[in-house]
Amino acid sequence: MLDKLEQLVKEAQRAADVIRNHKGMIRAISHIDCDGVCSAAIIVRALAKKQKTFHFSFARYLNEATVNNLAEEAKQGRWKLLVFTDLGSGAAASLAPILEHAQVIIADHHMIATKDGSEATENSDFYTHPNLINVNPLAFGLKEDISGSGMTYILSRALDPENVISGDLAIIGAIGDAQTGSIGDKWQVLGLNQEILKDAETAGSLRVTKSIRLWGRFSRPIHKALELSIDPYIPGITGNESAAIQFLTELGIPVKINGNWRSLADLTKEEQQRLVSAIIIERLRHNAPNPTQVFGDVYELPHQTGEFRDAQEFATIANACGKSLQGYLAVGACLGDEDKIERVRETVSGYKKQIGTMVSWVFKNKDNPDVVRLTDSAAFVFGGDKISEELISTVSSIVQRSGFLNRKILIGFGNTPNGEVKISSRADDSVNIDLNQMMRDCVKEVGGNGGGHLHAAGGQIPSDKAERFVDLINQYLSGLNPVVEEKPKN
Ligand SMILES: [Mn+2]
């Protein structure tokens, strides 16, 4: 592994040299999700530190129109160097018009396109170009246990060792990409992320403790955190405030002290242990999958306050801002710009309301075949105009993780304004299937494009092809018999 890692770092060094020696404007583009927002914060900080002039923006993906615009601008000489973070690898083969006029650096962890633009396998011949540097672990045979922001972090460290201060951002990005293999079953970061974690701990920007994985550990009254907990799902308590209060009261855990609500971080260690045991017992009683997966590493950001102090929560905030097309606000929060905090909060609360409305709309329509269709192999959720293209991936993740539709694979659909359908697929960890491959194979059949990771992949297809696409997925999954084996319970 060290050889491969050395090669990867060397490639990052080569990219860093290009940035270091570049005179003139740099065009930087990052993905709009949490990982992309953290990548943005890392690269923006690194470029500013080197006093580079740059123009930055976010993008959902690099489609033909975006590539053609950038190519035209490169041709006109507006930029001779472009840096893509947390996106670009999948579109590498279509970047040729840009590469004719400019150099491109990609720091990404998504699958890399092959020479003919077809689906990539691990040993396939990745697309290369003398003007392209792809800082991507897959290019060196490293498994995808690192996020796009992790790759951007490696690039930034190659640019200047003092960028070690951005390690916390790389971890937040990895947490945001939890379903893409960056985070393990027990909630701890894995692989290369562990190395970055050490950097962040040494730099003092991140602290690791063991605790219950509950959202709102510093910012929510504990009964609220229980009521609103979707992952872990607590049967009978999730979604029921009074049941949550009663649960705590029966455990002898006071919800208030001196008239103030207590948060999870306020509980004593002993109280936290009592709570963990009780949650596991509840989950066992209701046959919840992986009942013990409520406890794990939690990451605290000592230089942040309130809801920004918990890395998990920060990841949700960054994702919410990015998906609300306000990613620059979260970049501000990442870099400690306190003026942005209030607007970040407003954006997050608007986003949560939207997500909540969409998720409960799905649950309400679970018996409506126009919205939810259950086949032997998967649950299909048709969001139509009710679930926007930015939010379909988050809604799909939440619905899938809730276990509510009782299928190990979920495929969500949401309309885009340009007459396409955005698709988002999610699989439980216990499923032995490569959704990246499935998505690539099936979207190609209907003239769309897509890809992603092992257990989370997405794409876009023409809207009149949705039915055909459902048939293809069903055929694909029945052929593979996706529900192969349960992981041993721990
Ligand atoms: Mn990512």
Describe this structure in words.
It is built from 16 helices and 15 strands. It is α/β, with parallel strands linked by helices and 490 residues long. It folds into three domains: 2-184, Alpha-Beta Complex (inorganic pyrophosphatase (n-terminal core)), CATH 3.90.1640; 209-358, no CATH class; 365-480, Diaminopimelate Epimerase, Chain A, domain 1 (Roll). It has a six-stranded mixed beta sheet, with helices on both faces. A hairpin with a 2-residue loop joins strand 7 and strand 8 (260-261). Residues 35, 86, 109, 147-148, 177 line the site of manganese (II) ion.
Give a quick precis of the structure.
The protein is an alpha/beta fold. It is built from 16 helices and 15 strands.
Based on CA inertia axes, which overall geometry fits? globular
Structural class: alpha/beta
Q: Which CATH architecture of the largest domain is right?
A: Alpha-Beta Complex
Q: Sheet bearing the most strands, described?
A: 6 strands, mixed
Distance between the termini: 28 Å
pLDDT < 50 stretches: 179-183, 481-490
Number of domains: 3
Q: Give me the side-by-side strand order of the main sheet.
A: 10-11-12-13-15-14
The total count of helices amounts to 16
Give the class-level CATH name of the largest domain: Alpha Beta
Range of strand content: 15-25%
Helical amount among residues, as a percent range? Answer: 40-55%
For this structure, the CATH topology of the largest domain is inorganic pyrophosphatase (n-terminal core)
What small molecules accompany the polymer chains?
A: manganese (II) ion
Number of DSSP strands? Answer: 15
- Rg for CA atoms: 22 Å
Q: If you average the pLDDT, what whole number results?
A: 88
